Structures are given as C-alpha cells and as structure tokens.
Amino acid sequence: MQRKPSNHPSGVLPKSIDDKKKEITQLWQLSGECPEGTIPIRRISEEQRNAAKRPHHKTPPTVSNSDGKPAVNQLRHEYAYTYTPTGSYYGARATISAWQPFVERRNEFSLSQIWLVAGSGVNLNTIEAGWTVDPAVFGDYRTRLFVYWTRDGYQRTGCYNLRCSGFVQITNRMVIGGAVVTTGVQPEVTILIWKDVRQSVWWLQYNGVIVGYWPNSIFTLLKGTASLVEWGGEIINSNVNGIHTATDMGSGRFAQAGFRFASYFRNLLVVNNKNTLVFPPSIGSATTNSNCYNIAVGKSVNWGYYFYYGGPGRNLNCP
Fold first, then answer.
1. Where is the Neprosin PEP catalytic domain (predicted)?
2. pTM
C-alpha cells in the first residue's frame, strides 16, 4: 500500500486556482473528523451497492465516428464536454463549479467530471472523478463527490468509490461519495489526477487533499498512459413516452448565462511526460443536442482554457 506519492506534478499556475475561499465542503466535516490511520466510509444499502455496479449506468462520451469525430449520443446518455487530441497523457486537472442540479427521475443522473481514457469498446480503460447527483446509486438527490474506473468498457469491471476492489483511499479528511455543500459563494472543487511512474499508480487529489490512488494492477491499457482526456457534463435521458427529460446538466442554465449562473470548468491542464502541468495542445468540444444542453469554450489569462456548459433539458426547443 502506498502512503504518499513519490512525486507531484510541477507547473506555474494562476493564483486564482488556489483560492481557498471557494473550496467545497462536505457535510460530514461540519460535525466531526476521523482519527489518523483511519478513513471515513459512507454507509450504503444493498440496493445502492447493486445499483453502483450496474454496467449500463455508465458509458464513455467518446467513440469515434467514421470521420474521426466524437460520437456523443449513446444509450440515451447525453453530454456537453471538451476533449484533447489523441496523444499520451500522464494526468489532468481542472477546477469545477459545484451545483445541485434537478434530476427528474430516480433512474437518471447528472454529473460533471474528468475522464482519463485509453482504448475503446470492450478494451476501454477509464479513470473518472467529479461530482454527481445520482439517486439510484446514492439513494438521494444530494450532490456528491465520486470516483469511478473500468478496464473493459463498463462490462464487468469497475465501480463507484470504494464499492469494489480498485481505488485505494488513504486520507481521513474526505468521504468518497460524501454529500457536499453547494450553497453560498460559488463553491468549486479542484481535481488533479496524475501518474506516479515510480509507484505504478494513478493518484487523485481533491482541493489539495491527496485522497488515494488507482493501482496499475486493475487496468490493462492504463498501466501506461491515457490516450485522451475529457472534461464535461453528462446526464441520462429516460425519454419516457418520447419526451425529453427535464434533468439539469450543471446548474440547469445554458452556457450563455455565464458566471454565477452557468456551470463551468476552468484551468484545464494536462500532465506531460516530464510530470509538468501544461495547457492541452488544443481543445475540442461536443454536445449531444445543443437545444437541450450546450457548451461555450474560451481562454483567458486567469482561467486558461475554460468552458461554460449545461442546460435545463426539456424546453420549447428540446421537447
């Protein structure tokens, strides 16, 4: 078992990244803490445990079409996201605004996350982390931090959080799957995932806290590097009676609503082969249906690469 990383990605980052005033708080932290040498674990029901292992509940956003562009509509999963060119990536980072989106039906979810991807089809390997509202998996409609992984395209391997062997938590300061506070000054969560080549693991850091790691042994292709990084939002559209869901993505506002209203990712960075945080070589974007959920990408001095995204789902232009 690893106790701490052998290294940490270097790189000069804008001061706005380290703004502690906006960092997200988990509800359990308001009433207690766990002693050193232990980790906090959320109690779950058997129903929630089984729901978290259902392979149909997850699907990757990117499967290339014949023209090489991402296919964005699979199994009624809908997306608004950005992606890197195919390459070799040793990690990724972003700061994500946190919200509590409306989820219309119990078998639907709304999430915002980072994907590290290698392979495709049944050989797909992913590492995923972000926040979600997922009543089927977590039993309520609260916003929760999560991690996920698979090595066979979500068929038989992988799970949320600590619900199967895979992700190893080392911190006593955070509950994976714990509910978070999404009120007050715009809360944010900064996520960093990087490959520790010496230890043969992928480390996860939330808001400066090193949470734990995914060991190489649970992967096939991600024993090496990721070939693609994606950042964005995802929902499930049950499409009952042919009517689009009213489940929100992000804040439930379209990208053009802007700061304080629309959800965003900022300071999108990747880790290169020198273990340095750098800008992605370029950023592409895609949406399933921009009348339901859309995206607007930009670049600035303080936010680097960023994007606003989301929407309300069902509306006059998205019946």
1. 71-319
2. 0.88
